[in-house]
């Protein structure tokens, strides 16, 4: 049997509408005025550099193994003394993230042992074709700052890869030289 219409419930519904009429609108004018993101928003990735411009990525593929969406492809290669892109033995020769697959979970940045990979607040990555949504190093590498030297180049004089990992190398060279081993 149908229930009787409840007059109070009907009026209460209009009450919600009436209250909303006097609240400040929260409409965002996108794309004319993109709003701010949450502080820890997971946007486009970035491959970071050390202060002298060398790349932090060592091509270890841990990020690719951690990715649940199989969105990352890494191909590492050996640094040589003639052509060095990162401290230590290896660097990421090919690095790709497929943003058609990425779900923004951030597991890749947790897995990275050198903090080479982080995520920015940039979310404007829409495109009209599949291939442009596979980002390579050209789009992911952090821009060179004015005091950085573009790789390939040697490590700071007297430094080891550990000095880089410990943050002892600045754009001017080894900041805190290690004690000599006696
Ligand atoms: S954010 Fe998640 S889905 Fe996207 S590349 Fe990283 S691990 Fe994969
Ligand atoms: S981004 Fe980090 S985890 Fe991924 S290959 Fe480079 S160093 Fe390894």
Automatic annotation (TrEMBL):
Bilayer topology term: Peripheral membrane protein
Gene that specifies this protein: nuoI
Subunit structure: NDH-1 is composed of 14 different subunits. Subunits NuoA, H, J, K, L, M, N constitute the membrane sector of the complex.
Keyword Protease: no
EC assignment: 7.1.1.-
Pfam families: Fer4_7
Keyword set includes Disulfide bond: no
Needed co-factor(s): [4Fe-4S] cluster
Organism: Mycolicibacterium arabiense
Protein name, UniProt field: NADH-quinone oxidoreductase subunit I
Family: Belongs to the complex I 23 kDa subunit family.
Sequence positions that bind [4Fe-4S] cluster 1: 57, 60, 63, 112
């Amino acid at each position: 049997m149908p229930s009787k219409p409840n007059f109070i419930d009907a009026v209460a519904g209009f009450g919600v509408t009436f209250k909303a009429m006097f609240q400040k609108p929260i409409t965002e004018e996108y794309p004319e005025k993109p709003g701010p993101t949450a502080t820890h928003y997971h946007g486009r990735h970035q491959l970071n550099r050390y202060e002298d411009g060398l790349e932090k990525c060592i091509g270890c593929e841990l990020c690719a193994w951690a990715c649940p969406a199989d969105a990352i492809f890494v191909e590492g290669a050996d640094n040589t003394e003639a052509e060095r892109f990162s401290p230590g033995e290896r660097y990421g020769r090919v690095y790709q993230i497929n943003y058609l697959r990425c779900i923004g979970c951030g597991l890749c940045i947790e897995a990275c042992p050198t903090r080479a990979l982080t995520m920015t607040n940039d979310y404007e990555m829409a495109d009209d074709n599949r291939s442009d949504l596979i980002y390579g190093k050209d789009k992911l590498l952090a821009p060179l700052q004015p005091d950085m030297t573009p790789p390939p180049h040697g490590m700071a004089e007297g430094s080891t890869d550990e000095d880089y990992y410990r943050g002892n190398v600045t754009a001017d060279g080894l900041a805190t030289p290690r004690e000599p081993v006696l």
